[in-house]
Design a protein that fits this description.
The protein is of the alpha+beta class and about 280 residues long. It contains twelve helices and nine strands. The protein has helices at about 5-15, 30, 40-50, 75-85, 100-105, 130, 145-150, 170-175, 220-230, 250-265, 270-275, 275-280; strands at about 20-25, 55-60, 115, 120-125, 155-160, 185-195, 195-205, 235-240, 240-250. The strands form two sheets. It has a seven-stranded mixed sheet, sandwiched between helices. The relative contact order is 0.16.
Length: about 280
């Protein structure tokens, strides 16, 4: 059984340091049994970055809030949501279940903050207010978003036994990258305006499993992350039982942008760009 103290030691050994701003993806199950329960995981991260550090996670929203108008639901399902779905409340809405249990534990823990958007993040620490100082309604993962300020803070990405395809930060690369053929999706979000529920239009470059571009191969984000780890010699380490990695968000961005740009122009070069020869 692991402890908050032992997990903080593992995180420091991995390279997490006092004052760091860290964007975390975690599998509670992968970390293993922890004395005091899984809340000790985010508390250990806070111990590792200290009182001057910042912890960021991606919460998103419950089912339905970013689905009406996308064209993925049946007419009956859309009609029912249009009739029944209450306005989105960023302060109280649960995190998307697909994002794991730890983010919801962080969201509901004293001292955490969220941005007022269905593309919702949770932050704790010194830079939480700065990260959420501005929130674009459209293209919420791109310019002037929390992710842009995260890069400016020289943030680090921490993967605790999580799927490497779930690195939300790479949506920022898709949003700010200057390449043609991006898929734009539009949908409606129920919000409260002057006491009334209204459906507000929103658009973004596609962050669904379909991807922001038709040339993206399966598990594109995981392949970018794995290439970056290989090229930087980052073998990671264990945090509890979880195979974990820590790396610079800016360095990943610098890796991802030219790959996305070249692949958008020619989808046939995916294996070459993503280093398939290195895997053989």
């Amino acid at each position: 059984m692991h402890s908050r103290l032992s997990l903080a030691h593992d995180l420091r050994t991995l390279g997490l340091a006092q004052g760091d701003t860290v964007f975390t993806h975690a599998s509670v199950r992968a970390v293993g049994a922890v004395a005091g329960g899984p809340d000790q995981i985010h508390l250990a991260i806070k111990d590792a970055v200290g009182p001057d550090g910042t912890l960021l996670m991606y919460a998103s929203c419950p089912d339905g809030y970013d689905e009406v108008g996308r064209g993925t639901l049946s007419p009956d399902a859309e009609a029912e949501l249009l009739e029944k779905l209450p306005p989105f409340d960023a302060a109280t809405a649960r995190s998307a279940r697909d994002n794991g249990a730890l983010v919801e534990m962080l969201r509901t823990y004293p001292g955490s903050r969220v941005n007022n958007h269905v593309a919702r993040f949770v932050a704790w620490g010194t830079h939480a207010e700065h990260l959420f100082a501005e929130q674009p309604w459209n293209y919420a993962f791109g310019a002037t978003s929390a992710l842009e300020r995260f890069v400016e803070l020289d943030g680090k990405i921490l993967l605790l036994g999580s799927d490497h395809d779930a690195v939300t930060f790479l949506h920022y690369a898709e949003h700010v990258g200057d390449f043609p053929g991006k898929r734009v999706v539009r949908y409606l979000v129920p919000v409260l305006e002057r006491g009334d529920r209204v459906w507000r239009a929103m658009e973004e470059f596609d962050t669904s499993d379909d991807g922001a571009h038709a040339n993206w191969p399966p598990r594109f984000f995981a392949r970018i992350v794995d290439l970056h780890l290989r090229r930087t010699g980052n073998r990671g380490g264990l945090v509890g039982d979880a195979r974990s990695h820590l790396f610079s968000a800016r360095a990943l961005l610098d890796r991802a942008l030219p790959i996305m740009t070249q692949l958008a122009l020619d989808g046939r070069v995916a294996d070459e760009l993503l280093g398939i020869e290195e895997e053989r």
